[in-house]
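Posting this for the archive.
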Amino acid sequence: MNWINNVVRPKISGLLSTAKRDVPDNLWVKCPESGQMVFYKDLEANAFVVPGSNYHMRMGADQRLRHLFDNGEYKLVAVPSVQQDPLKFRDGRKYTDRLKDAKADTKLEDAVLVGDGLLHGQHVVAAAQDFRFMAGSLGMAAGEAIIAGMLKAVELKTPFILFAASGGARMQEGILSLMQMPRTTIAVQRLRDAKLPYIVVLTDPTTGGVTASYAMLGDIHIAEPGALICFAGPRVIQQTIREQLPDGFQRAEYLLAHGMVDMVVHRHQLRETLARLCGLLMSGINAAKGKDARRGNGKAYVNGSSVDGKLIETAARESGGVVEPEAVPPSQRFDPARTDKAKRDGTELSSATPGSGSSGGTAPSQGGGMGPASGSNQTRGV
């Protein structure tokens, strides 16, 4: 009887079994803002944005790149290897042990992942920092990865997009980690010399030496809603100045209101926004291929190729940021004939006023004589 072996016995074994089934630890995720419990699969399908509160959860580097590129496909950019523990650093644990644990948890070699692929059909190079890897701290390996990505963009002549998420420089590497700040700055200058766009997406959190270097050197800075963006945190500043800080201090919306970032974009519209910006900034370079650079006042443009005005207008209208002009009535429009007539009327009016030379009939005397005007002045003087 196959039905006894295939159906009855498994059910009986399941009822008699006392073994506890394995349940994943991340099956449900709690929203830090509202306390809402969200099923992990639903959260992942919603780009790690909590449906009820719109809270933007942190994303891993691989998830960032898969959400960015077309069909989630990209090619990893080769990164030069570095020495793992140059200073033989040790606090409570060895630095090498911390690196091993971070690599095992994230399946990454370091905090930065670099890839190149297509974004709405356009080739781009992107780098993403993973906060899970030792708080996304900037060390020698992370610095090499960012530099390799920027140089790859220069080689391929494509835009470079950076997703920043870091707690700052990695203290276990000391001065060697701080040296990555000027090194990445030089790589940013390579992008500018090649006249290629450099777009930075500031995610939660972006702090410390990363904010003080390449994260704030982009051509366009985009922030995710609610992201903490600062050098020193609000608690440190509040303890230092001993004053109460305003609500939302150092958050993305606060920085947008004070001119530190260019725009705050919801994660669901981020991909389309990046594609539109890359197409807009690269259109001038693509249009200038095979043609002489446009010149103004006898000199070539120093800030890159010119951008087609129609493309700017189309992109602005798609983003909804265009204000349509209001209709002006004919009485308020500029009319040269009406202006000339007003001038003539003003001239005739001024010539008809009393005291003028043509209407008074008395011209001022010459050779020291006193005319009516000087007589009136003399009378007022008396």
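The chain has two domains: 23-57, 58-288+307-319. The first strand starts at residue 28 and ends at 30.
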